[in-house]
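Slack export, channel: ligand-projects

TW: morning all. Re-posting the request from yesterday since it got buried. We need the structure predicted with the small molecule present, not the apo form. The ligand is zinc ion; the SMILES is in the block with the sequence. No rush, but it would help planning for next week.
GE: picking it up
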Amino acid sequence: MWRKIKTNKYKSQKGKIMKTMTCKQLGGACDKEFHANTFEEMAELSKKHGTEMFQAGDKAHLASMNSMKHLMQDPKAMQEWFENKRKEFEALPNT
Ligand SMILES: [Zn+2]
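GE: finished. pasting the full token output, ligand included:
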């Protein structure tokens, strides 16, 4: 039954389990996929990508960043958003 699982290309060298989320799922604007072991790592990848897109002047990402900025002005709302995304991350199947 479990002879060979196709998705082990996302496992890191140490054999850790990676999870996948897209830029859009993390409040961004495109379908770029991020692979990480922890939600913190995931958030870091998304932030890095967002910064790159910001520097490139990508309009779609600038717009989504603006709405995130709006959210960040309310620490409680930001915390809620973050916790919701963390739950979403934890509910993902291990790939
Ligand atoms: Zn993106």
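GE: first-pass observations. DSSP finds three helices and two strands in the chain. The longest helix spans residues 39-55.
TW: perfect, thank you
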